[in-house]
Amino acid sequence: MTQTTKGTQSVHRTVLLLREVAKYNGQGVNLSKIARNTELHTATVHRILSALVLERFLTYDATTKLYHLGVDLYHIGTGAYHFAICERYHSVIEKIAERTEDTVFLLIKSGNDVLCIDRMEGGFPIRTMTIEIGARRPLGIGAGSLALIAFLSKDEFGSIVSDNRKRYSDFGDLTENDIRKLAEKSQKRGFVVSKSLFHEGVTSVGVPVRNRQGEVVAAITVAAINKRMEPSRQKEISELVSRISSQSS
Predict the structure, then answer these.
(1) Is the pLDDT of residue 249 over 80?
(2) Which helix (H) or strand (E) is 54 found in, with range?
(3) Regarding predicted confidence, which is higher, 8 or 206?
(4) Please, is 159 exposed, middle or buried when counting C-beta atoms within 10 Å of its C-beta (0-12, 13-18, 19+)?
(5) How would residue 6 be classed by pLDDT, with cut points 50, 70 and 90?
(6) Cα 230–233–234 angle (5° rounding)?
(7) Do 170 and 188 belong together in one domain?
(8) At what angle do helices 42-54 and 31-38 cross, to 10 degrees?
(9) How many structural domains are present in the chain?
(10) What is the CATH number of the domain that holds 37?
(11) Residue 134 phi/psi, 5° resolution?
């Protein structure tokens, strides 16, 4: 067997073992079961698993003797998810920016934070840069940020807002109750509108982006100066965002 063949075999075995641990990640899985299910020698399995634990791709509990997926593997997976969403919806926010001539943002949930992963500037000469790519804020702060959670189940929404309640006062002395009230209005309307609430002189329209199963996977915000965002245009923009984003879901 050549060195290249050995290297390829090691990669295949490593991936096989990661997938096997992932099957049992909830309860964990021991060495003998992994070896039995993959039909690999126990010593080989132990060697690869030990290396994966050192790299933090797996964790090993010496008391229970069980393996679980590790934190670094989670971070890689999260990064891949961010990239996939950005790739899927980049052309969407490009079209929306072209149609509206305003600034458009693509946002996703990251724990109890909102994360801006993409932005597109429209042709209107007055730009509204309300959040930078890579910036984080508590979920609920910002039109798109609230759109990510306002349309979740009552329990899930309540849990996130409750967890973030102490952080809201850093943004214009907002309270948990303020966020809840704005969410209620947004649920009736079908989209989120914030007028000079998070940014003086700026009105933002936040629209949830759903996948084919109806789950909210992202949010798109269109932001402009107040005089460009009368109620009729807010509705037009929400419908435009929903229509274009649904074509890519």
Answers:
(1) no
(2) helix 42-54
(3) 206
(4) middle
(5) low
(6) 85
(7) yes
(8) 120
(9) 2
(10) 1.10.10.10
(11) 95, -10
Structure tokens at 109: 């949930």
| E strand segments, the chain | 58-61, 66-69, 103-110, 113-120, 136-138, 192-195, 202-210, 216-225
Question: Looking at the structure, do residues 123 and 242 belong to the same domain, yes or no?
Answer: yes
Asked whether residue 59 falls in the same domain as residue 171, the answer is: no
Distances in whole angstroms, Cα of residue 56 to Cα of each of 20, 69, 70, 74, 83? 16, 8, 5, 10, 22
Query: Can you give the residue range of the structural domain that contains 27?
Result: 3-69
**pLDDT tens profile 140-159:** 999 999 999 999 999 999 99
Return the bridge partners of 108, or none.
115
Nearest one of 79, 179, 199 to 127, comparing CA atoms = 199
**CA torsion angle 132 186 165 77 (round to 10):** -50
Residue 220 has pLDDT above 90, yes or no: yes
164-219 tens-digit pLDDT: 999 999 888 899 999 999 999 999 999 999 998 877 899 999 999 999 889 999 99
For residue 135, is pLDDT > 60? Answer: yes
The CA-atom distances, in angstroms, between 192 and each of 4, 67, 99 are 55, 43, 20
> Is the pLDDT assigned to residue 84 strictly greater than 80?
yes
The answer to whether residues 53 and 170 belong to one domain is no
Q: How confident is the model at residue 247 (pLDDT cuts 50, 70, 90)?
A: confident
